[in-house]
From TrEMBL:
<dbReference type="GO" id="GO:0003824">
    <property type="term" value="F:catalytic activity"/>
</dbReference>
<dbReference type="InterPro" id="IPR041492">
    <property type="entry name" value="HAD_2"/>
</dbReference>
<dbReference type="InterPro" id="IPR023198">
    <property type="entry name" value="PGP-like_dom2"/>
</dbReference>
<keyword id="KW-0479">Metal-binding</keyword>
<dbReference type="GO" id="GO:0046872">
    <property type="term" value="F:metal ion binding"/>
</dbReference>
<comment type="similarity">
    <text>Belongs to the HAD-like hydrolase superfamily. CbbY/CbbZ/Gph/YieH family.</text>
</comment>
<keyword id="KW-0460">Magnesium</keyword>
<dbReference type="InterPro" id="IPR036412">
    <property type="entry name" value="HAD-like_sf"/>
</dbReference>
<dbReference type="InterPro" id="IPR023214">
    <property type="entry name" value="HAD_sf"/>
</dbReference>
<dbReference type="InterPro" id="IPR006439">
    <property type="entry name" value="HAD-SF_hydro_IA"/>
</dbReference>
<dbReference type="Pfam" id="PF13419">
    <property type="entry name" value="HAD_2"/>
</dbReference>
<protein>
    <submittedName>
        <fullName>HAD family phosphatase</fullName>
    </submittedName>
</protein>
<dbReference type="InterPro" id="IPR051600">
    <property type="entry name" value="Beta-PGM-like"/>
</dbReference>
Length: 210
């Protein structure tokens, strides 16, 4: 029986994948570096910024002593985008409200830093429905490692077989699968609604969810 539903944030509850891409490239551009759209979609999407910077050092020679500066600048630019672009989406508010009303424990587990997670969830008016919010700063290894989902399930006191995770990209799907939970794969935030989630729960449980 499913007792908890965990959501990735970027690309699932918030249409923010391009915000992270634009913010990091804006910071990198000051030093003459860039992540192409192809690289973003094929290799970097869904990874923590620190992991992306390490990949840039290995693949493109980005000096590691610049990581801290670039990471801080990227987070600043991301928050600027959040302040102007992040707004409530009714289908997500309705979905979380109904799931909470039905007694499911709810959470977000994101490779973003905690301040970004909290800011996005507040501005999208979703924070009030969530029992836990886990960021990449709460774990030692971000997705695709399963640690972030294992931690969220532990905080909710649910087993993997009692948990449905909603994910959109390869790294997140790997993390959710490795954590042992049931997974609902979506294309983008427009795919995420009450019907999709309850249908997947029903399929897992083998019965109709009221």
């Amino acid at each position: 029986m499913i007792k908890a539903v965990l959501f990735d944030m970027d690309g699932v509850l918030i249409d923010a994948r391009d915000w992270h891409y634009e913010a990091l490239n804006r910071a990198l551009g000051l030093l003459g570096y860039e992540i192409t759209r192809y690289e973003h979609l094929s290799a970097y999407d869904g990874l923590p910024t620190g992991r992306k910077l390490e990949m840039l050092s290995v693949e493109h020679g980005l000096p590691r002593e610049l990581h801290s500066f670039l990471n801080g600048l990227k987070q600043q630019y991301t928050l600027e985008f959040v302040a102007t672009r992040c707004k409530p989406v009714f289908q997500h508010q309705y979905m979380l409200a109904r799931l909470a009303q039905a007694g499911y424990a709810l959470g977000v587990a994101s490779n973003s830093v905690r301040r970004t997670v909290e800011e996005m969830m507040e501005r999208s008016d979703l924070a009030r429905y969530l029992d836990v919010m886990v960021s990449n700063q709460d774990v030692s290894r971000g997705k695709p490692d399963p640690e972030i989902y294992v931690k969220a399930m532990s905080m909710l006191d649910v087993a993997p077989e009692q948990t449905l995770i909603v994910e959109d990209n390869e790294n997140g799907i790997k993390a959710a699968t490795a954590a042992g939970a049931h997974v609902l794969v979506v294309e983008d935030p427009g795919d995420v609604n009450l019907e999709r989630v309850t249908t997947r729960i029903a399929a897992v449980e083998g019965s109709v969810v009221a």
